[in-house]
Amino acid sequence: MAKVAYYPGCALEGTGGPYDRSTRALVGELNLQMENLRDYNCCGAMEVKNVHPMLQTYLSARNLAIATEQMGFDTVMAPCNGCYHNLKKAEYELATSEESLNTVQDLAKKADDPVFKGNVRTIHLLEWLMEEVGPDGFKSRIKKSLNGIKIANYYGCMYTRPRQIYPEKDQGPGSESTYKPHFMDDLLGAAGAENVDFPLKTACCGGAHTLSDADTSTQLVLNLLQAAEDSGAEVIATECPTCHSGLEMHQVRAEKTFGIKTNVKIIYFTQLLGLAMGLSARKLGIHENISDSIDFLKNKGVI
Amino acid sequence: MAIHEKSLIDAERISTKDSLVIDGVDVSGHWNTMISPRTLTDYDDGFEAKIQKYAGAENVHRCWQCGSCTNSCTMYAQNVNFNPRYWIYLTRLGLKDELLKDKDIIWQCVSCNKCTNICPKDVKPESVMKALSHWMEDEGHTEETASTKFDKEFWDQISERGRIEDSAVLQNFFQKTGQSLNQDWLVEMVKRMIKHLPFVHLFHSGMHALFPPKTKSWGKTGEVLKAYVKEQKEASHG
């Protein structure tokens, strides 16, 4: 079993706290091995590339270099789609552009930072769980079935796009698909959920402009919420703190500002898997979600 | 130049006649709509090159106008005037005045990357959208957009401490864009947020805001990166 460097990123230190707590609880329960990425920095989020793309590349490469040069790891695991995307993008860019690699290495020397040399891969928490445990592994360890909760699995933009930076995807059976991802479906299905046929798995929630163009984001989020409800979903499972907060925030905004109420619950996939592993709702931070799913989960007999 | 682009036809130049005879041939019916020609002389030959100097927009010359970007675009589904393919066409021809007609919406690109994902020529339309909105700000055609303010808020925090503290980003952003924190939906969201939250978590968030997270080894990294960006921007845009 490969031990990975865990990169929570800034969102999981703040508003995405429940995602961090449920990730740690789940990983602990599964006896998987990870160690915090030491004194990491922000990956550049979705904003910094607009100031200059090299900033995002550098910030992400600095994290990868901490893992390899200071900790001796060859794998960085990130649960946040934004971090995952940025690290993968840096990995791709530095493997394909000598010019970028030279720039990053020069900057690192100037700043007395660890120097990126490659030999490192980034994986998403979801991919790591598929690799280490998989649907069959989960099936054998489930303590409490998700009792057929109807779930729309929402993967968002950054987990699959652009496909160029994810060469390991779309490689046939067993690999993740960029146009119709299924890893969350596979794991939650194994945990006893019923996955609905959700057409907007990789649609955009407007996360990049969640505050700066709030009306557009509310509209995009409403598309997701209403499409999920139309597909028969009771829950939208998320795997990204930006998507998750965006969905929660604009669900409230749609209700308060536009009078459009939706009832679908928004829950991190790690919280759902954690419940299936018999962990308590409190330990998984479910009570910290803005989308209040406590009564719903009680009625379903899951907590 | 010949105009192949429907959006470039001015409405007042379209004339439809009930009956029309040309050179003794009655062409009434399907062939009775005419477009009177116009000549564009105000195109900027160097415009494409100028946009290409914005990092990420280097490949704009590769576009072969297949329209996959617009077809897949999240924002096009919200507003049919949001048309990346058309804007790339205008960029290539140097038709700045036409481009500026859409100056208030180009910045709305949500960076979902559907266009960059699907583009067969690696034009990276998402980056081109960012380049165009930056050019409009740089040349004073638009005010600094809310999106740019948000980007700068992030970069300010990161260059200083290596990390961001999201509640501070939110507060500063609302302040810098002159919005109240006392909006119905925000208040409701906070209420729902604290409904089940134990005191210890509130305390933790408070501490987090007071003592924002910091990368201890950040040292001079922020300064080095700022200097790099300054140098790059001066080299590209003077």
What does this structure look like?
The complex is a heterodimer of chains A (303) and B (238). Chain A is an alpha/beta fold. Chain A has two domains: 4-124, Glutathione S-transferase Yfyf (Class Pi), Chain A, domain 2, CATH 1.20.1050; 145-299, Rossmann fold, CATH 3.40.50. Chain A is 47% helix and 10% strand. In chain A, the strands form two sheets. In chain A, strands 2-1-3-4 form a four-stranded parallel beta sheet. Chain A has a four-stranded parallel beta sheet with strand order 6-5-7-8, sandwiched between helices. In chain A, β5 (150-154), α9 and β6 form a beta-alpha-beta unit. In chain A, α4 (53-70) packs across α5, α5 packs across α6 (98-110) and α10 (214-230) packs across α11. Chain A starts with a strand and ends with a helix. The model of chain A has no long low-confidence stretch (mean pLDDT 96). Chain B has 238 residues and is mainly α. Chain B has two domains: 47-138, no CATH class; 146-237, no CATH class. Chain B is built from twelve helices and four strands. In chain B, a hairpin with a 2-residue loop joins β2 (21-22) and β3 (25-26). In chain B, α8 crosses α9 and α8 (146-161) crosses α12. Chain B is elongated and about 90 Å long. At the A-B interface, α1, α3, α4, α10 and α11 of A face α3, α6, α7, α8 and α9 of B.
